[in-house]
Queue: 2 jobs
Job 1
Amino acid sequence: MKRSSIVFILLALITFKSFGAGSITKSESSIKSLVSTTKIDESKLKEGDLIFHESVSEFSTAIQLATNSIYSHCGILVKENNRFYVLEAIQPVGKTLLADWIARGKDGKYVIKRLKEAEQLLTVSMLNKMKEVGKSFEGKDYDSWFAWSDSKIYCSELIWKIYKRAANIEIGKLEKLKDFDFSSDLAKKYVKLLYGDNLPKNETVISPISMFNSELLFTVSKN
């Protein structure tokens, strides 16, 4: 099994366990402390920007091993009442205040990327269309099995489908679960937990690192 399977299987668990129904690794007080010290120049940000970070959990480590990447979770920026939020697939899909989202990641580190042709393509009407697509996913359960259907959704799948359905833009290369690397003990552990002996090897998937490495994007901000 290759690099694609672990990523999603673990991605699901990472997001679901760390941010949703499972336990959160960071203490509530430490998160509040990070939020209070997080400095973000929001004047440089735009709706539609993508944000990536490393989740704080064992599942995140498994994803990193499977994808050879430090980024295990992502979301898309939206603006409401002059404040930026991250629309993300956790449990359930919803919006998180940007500062809170950043503080939830490891050491408060993040990278924000933008479509290279955003000025031309992401018009007000297009952004509204993207928001409508995003809204259709809000409240849906997190997809721990990384299926390509819309009944449940995982983080990179949410972003990919918003851009594809609203703007017909494909950010990142679609792969199959069989393309990922499940050779590590940690990866094997969660593959077994999720799928038993029936890994759907030909399931279509999109990983955070595939989107992060897309030639359609450029880096706007990082720390």
Note: Residues 1-37 have pLDDT under 50 and may be disordered.
Job 2
Amino acid sequence: MPTHTFTLNGERVSVDTEDDVRLLWVIRDLLGVTGPKYGCGINVCKACTSHINGKAFNPCSVPVSDASESDEITTIEGLADGDELHPMQQAWIDRDVPQCGYCQPGQIMAAVAKVRQCMAEGRDVDDDAIEEIRNICRCGTYNRIREAIKAGAENM
């Protein structure tokens, strides 16, 4: 079996698995990092949203063979700085966003990536920017998600 090496949440990891295994299964099942959730497996619900080299991506739709040794993958577990929550995570708590909580790791990761994108492009994190985030919340907490994104953006 081929060996695949990349960085996950700041730690260099190697896994022996077939090239066509999706990164979500590598991260969850082989490496035991369960923050990214399985929702649809076809890049629609985005419950698995994580970052690759600082940009949002959905590991459910990416084969492990697409990850290179220089790639840095960050999941919700790697977002905080030790015991200090990331400002977006704190905003989620402060705004009491989750109901069931299943989609929340992906929601937070997508929000952080969107805020970083807006900052890099010199635009505001306004309702139009937030509408570009396509993560699905089956509980429908979109109003609180929107409030949390704006609050988190102020502290990033």
Note: The radius of gyration is 15 Å.
